Structures are given as C-alpha cells and as structure tokens.
C-alpha cells in the first residue's frame, strides 16, 4: 500500500541499513492480534512468521496484557534484586522441565535478546572447563554478537569481519535429506555422530579438546530441520564421555514451538545448558537466559552482570504466557495443528515436482524446494517468487535453509483450523501460479 511505502522510505532515510525483514515483507505495521497483522493501509495478513518465532501465544494476547499492565503499575526495573515476580517466573520455568531434571537445574537471565544468552552459555562453558574450543554446526544460527556470530555457520554474515572469537569448529548437522556423508536416512553406516567421534578421539584431528558443543535441537534458520532419531542422545553421550558441555540453543525451538516446552523434550537427551529467549517474553517483551545444571556454577557472584537482565515486565509476561499455555492446553493444540498442516501440505503439494521435502515438528515446519527431486539441486529462485506471491495474497512467512530454499512456517501457536486453511489455500494457489 501507499502509506506503507511512504513509511518504509522515511524509515530507510533515518535508520541504518541493518534492518532486514521489511525487504522481504515491505509493510509498515499498524497493529496485530492473534495471528493477524494489519498494515498502515488497512491490509490484513496471516502471520506465519510470528515475529521470528516470538509471539507464540498470539500477538497482543489479552492474558499477557493484563499481567503486564498489573506489573507495570507495581515495578518495572529492579536490576538483580530479588522479586517475587522473578522467583515465580524461575519456578514456573523449572517445573515445566521434565521430571527427571527437577531439582538439578538453575536459571540465569541474560540480556534482552537471544544472542545475549548464547554469549553467557559459551562463557559459562569456557569458565567451567577452562578450555576454549567450541563445536558448532553447519546451518546453525545463534545471533549477531561476536561470540554468537562466530558460532553461526553462514559466512555471508561475517564476510568483512576478520576476527570474532577464536577456536570455533563446525561439523555437519544431522540433516538426513542432505547427508554430508552421502548416506541414506535411517541406514547410515558412517554418520554425523561418528564423524564427531573421530574428531574428538583422533589426536591428529587438529581440534583441541572442546569446552562445549552448541546446537539447535531442531535447526530453525537452517530450514526447520528435525535431526535423525537418537541423534541428540548419541551426541550428548559422546560429549559427556569427553567431559564436554552440551548447550542446546532452544531460543527458537523452545516455548512450545514443537509441542513440548523445549524441543529436546521429545527425546531422552538432556543438555547441560539450555538457552532460551523469543517466546519466553510472552507477546514480544525482551527476555533471554540460561537453564543450566547446578554443578556448572563456575561463575562467582557478579561474574556475569548487565543492566537489563530480566526486566520485571518481561518476567510477568513470561509467567502469564506459561500459565496461558497450561490453562488452554496449548502444547497439545500445537501437536494437533502441526499434524493437520503437515497432512494438508503433503496432500496439496504432492503434484509439485519442486518439493524435495516437507518436514517439521509441531508448528515449526519446513518445505524444501529443489530443481530436481533426484539431484536435490536447491531452488531458491522459486521460493522467492512463491513467497512474494503469498505476500501479495496476504500470507507472511520467512525463508531460510542452508541454501535459502526452504519455506519456514512458524505461525503463532494459537492458530485455528480456519486460519490454517486460509493459509494453505493461499499457498496452494500461489504455488501453482509460481510454478507455471
Ligand atoms: N539462536 C537461535 C536458534 C535463533 O533462532 C536466534 C534468532 N533467530 C538467535 C539465537 C538469536 O537471537 P536474537 O536475534 O534475539 O539475538
């Protein structure tokens, strides 16, 4: 719309070029409710993007707004001083962990954004082990601050940066559709875990003993990739055999995105450190932090401080969001809606010769486009056209993947069947139009 264009122009003249999303979704936003965004020209969009996986309980969820208003009238900024609000938030987080983890973990808040939590996690792992090598994974995304960026595999993000943090070593993720070892899924003889085992156990690998292994239990920006069965368990047991700390970055896959509080809860794998952010701020209040095993308390008092850690309003929003999920059985709904979407997508997209894989868990779904099903050659060009057409028809989603060829569906978890059907109908029409 016209007014959107005007505002975009105005903003680009005064705000640095660091902004990214308006390029692919050129709208200025007026308001948002549930899973619907309204732009300044009065156009409505179905939001299958959820502010980068943040508004899991829906834009401006009324439960959260009430809690936030109450909190704002009482206390907003308290630094690290104890508050009932914070203690209750921590307890809620800890009690939503699997029972076998109860009593063994602590929470520590980072700064306002996800990258802050990643920085804190690698700092804690280094202090604890007194080592400094970190193993990270191809396709992984962890943020834009120096440490988090160094651990993010996409070299495009750090082309002009010559040094961030040293001693980061990337290994292949469990991405069966594009197996780095050219094995077929389910029957691999040499897999990504044995590769890592070789690195850790061969003194000639050139990799010093790592402090930590950092990965997303379900790779998000990398293309919503669900790792192979038992992959996380095998990885954790290998790491622990070598005294290496396992960090699961659940910043995107957490907060019920996959139908569990955290994605790793679909498995028996138990990490030493979990990073969280995004959905924990309820409807978009900034919050991030770590959940870590109590015996990893390597930092003394004041060793990791910051002015804006655990804002009281964000904590109140977090509490209200967890309570909302529990009250409405939202986790169950995520599983049901995830299956519904996957089934529909498989039915309606089956005719298309450019769809290599439809995958996901809960409401974290990826559709990978290829030029040819047998060569699996990535097809980012068609994804771009498809996304643009869907946008014109009122559906927003993000694109990602190792080759920018994956449509990433990450809607608010509260979507109804009616909204899912409307989104699928747009995708179905626009896929045909994009292909012809
Ligand atoms: N880790 C993961 C898995 C993420 O998806 C993101 C954000 N997309 C981050 C870390 C970084 O979070 P932030 O952008 O809030 O710094």
Write a structural description.
The protein has 436 residues and is α/β, with parallel strands linked by helices. It has 2 domains: 2-61 and 330-435, Aspartate Aminotransferase, domain 1 (Alpha-Beta Complex), CATH 3.90.1150; 75-328, Aspartate Aminotransferase, domain 2. Helix content is 36%, strand content 16%. It contains 13 helices and 14 strands. The protein has helices at 2-14, 21-24, 50-53, 62-74, 84-95, 114-129, 146-150, 192-201, 231-241, 312-328, 330-349, 380-392, 417-435; strands spanning 29-33, 36-39, 44-48, 105-109, 133-137, 168-171, 210-215, 245-249, 273-276, 289-293, 355-361, 364-369, 395-400, 406-409. It starts with a helix and ends with a helix. Residues 52, 113-115, 118, 141-143, 216, 220-221, 249, 251-252, 277 line the site of 4'-deoxy-4'-aminopyridoxal-5'-phosphate. 4'-deoxy-4'-aminopyridoxal-5'-phosphate is lined by residues 52, 113-115, 118, 141-143, 216, 220-221, 249, 251-252, 277. Its cofactor is pyridoxal 5'-phosphate.
Describe the main β-sheet briefly: 7 strands, mixed
Q: What name is given to the CATH topology of the largest domain?
A: Aspartate Aminotransferase, domain 2
Bound molecules: 4'-deoxy-4'-aminopyridoxal-5'-phosphate
The low-confidence parts are none
What are the defining features of this structure?
36% helix, binds 4'-deoxy-4'-aminopyridoxal-5'-phosphate, 436 residues, 7-stranded mixed β-sheet, single chain, Aspartate Aminotransferase, domain 2, Aspartate Aminotransferase, domain 1
